[in-house]
Amino acid sequence: MREAREREFDEFVLARQQRLLRTAYLLCGDWHLAEDLTQNALAKVYVGWNRIQHVEQIDAYVHRILFRTYIDTYRRRRKREILSAAVPDVAGTGIASDVRLTLMAALARVTPRYRAVLVLRYWEDRSVGETAEALGIAEGSVKSHTHRGLQQLRSVLGDQALDLIRS
Amino acid sequence: MEEQDVGRVFAAAAPETVPVIGDLPGRARALGKRRRRQRAFMTGAGAGVTAVAVAGAVVALGGFGSGKPVSATDASPAGPPSSSWRVTTTPATPSTAPSTTPSTTHSMPKSSYSFLQSTDNPVADEAVLTAVKAALPSKDGASLRLNRASEDKNGYGAEFTMGSTVLGISAGSYNPNVHGTPSQCAADPSHCTKGTATLQERQVRWEYYYGDPSAPTLNIYDDQGGIGYLVTAYPGAQSAQPPGLAEMTGVGLNEQVAAAELAAWTTR
């Protein structure tokens, strides 16, 4: 029974870890932090696995845990950590590393709470309502955070970088 | 920036290759089991009292947890800072001795801090709220809302919305041997002001970091007592004038605030 449950959990994690890590990386801007974040979120999933595995939209649920873990972790550690704007230490393809560096540096400058909203809205493609539900905040806050996050991105990136992205 | 540009930003920034993490399921399971054991231990430790090994893998500061509003508290102005603040600050240059001695006496937590009170305590919240309100900069004291910590057991924190700035204040366990001086000042000393002061009858070190103008922060280290205090302003960029050094130290080194936070946090 226990072995079966653990096997199900392992299969669940293996099937989703790439996507979770990629999202975590966009939130943290650092692979090591992304790894810690993903592991912490999955540990929470494991603790409640008996219940969670029967949740109807389990992927959305687990992503919600990831985002809330990120927010909690940030709030707990925000003044002790330096957000990294370093390029990933794995080979990237399809985009020049300097452009990627610029983008990650820009994202690192966006306030974490705003960044979480932007990642949910524009990377996870969630609606305002879904984003609010995932982060446990009001829809109005999602809208204002989106607006401010976009402002921050715009001010950091500037027109030149935006042209690069558009091209 | 157009909204579709944001999608492009993420698409471009997202790594196409994700590093392989060895046995992530196993590591998550191990961590989950450890948490489950801790939770069981805490639950069995008694009503609302949690035994925590401070020297363990604790997070030093900022224990706000997920936070949840407890009341729409009191929208009345905070009033001017108390004239009875017994705080001495020495910007930029460490001093060897405090220049004032506080006359108020507050019961201090036991040195080991082996028993920490649950933070989910409305009465304690109100005590902290009252104290912090008295210490807040009067210019921003018109709209306060308290969020109380709800998860962490190693510290006590409160957050206040002041206009467009969220001010966070917390006290928690701090072990200089374990944590060193875990602030941004170590990484970016050019944007840091340091000093010493007396707080709760102890000499403390404080570090004010302003390298990120949208989120100034004040860390206060009581090395002797094993207590860390943290005052944050976040996000200050939208504020007309984010709290500065004087305001942050005024709030963070306020005796009444410290006493309220310690009383809320610790139990005997």
Per CATH, which architecture of the largest domain in chain A? Answer: Orthogonal Bundle
Give the CATH H-level superfamily of the largest domain in chain A. RNA polymerase sigma factor, region 2, helix turn helix motif
Placed side by side, the strands forming the largest sheet of chain B appear as: 2-4-5-6-10-9-8-7
Largest interface: A-B, 65 and 57 residues
Domain count of chain A: the total is 2
Low-confidence stretches of chain B: 41-119, 148-153
Spans of chain A of 5+ residues with little confidence (pLDDT < 50)? 78-95
Fraction of residues in β-strands of chain B = 15-25%
Spatial shape of chain B:
globular
CATH class of the largest domain in chain A: Mainly Alpha
How would you describe what is shown here?
The complex is a heterodimer of chains A (167) and B (268). With 167 residues, chain A is mostly helical. Chain A folds into two domains: 1-84, Rna Polymerase Sigma Factor, Chain: A (Orthogonal Bundle); 88-167, Arc Repressor Mutant, subunit A. Chain A is 77% helix and 0% strand. Chain A has eight helices and no strands. In chain A, α1 (2-28) packs antiparallel against α2 and α1 packs across α4. The radius of gyration of chain A is 17 Å and the shape is globular. Chain B is α+β, with helices and mostly antiparallel strands and 268 residues long. Chain B has one domain. In chain B, the strands form two sheets. In chain B, strands 2-4-5-6-10-9-8-7 form an eight-stranded antiparallel sheet, with helices on one face. Chain B has a two-stranded antiparallel ribbon with strand order 1-3. The termini of chain B are far apart. At the A-B interface, α1, α2, α4, α5 and α6 of A face α1, α2 and β10 of B.
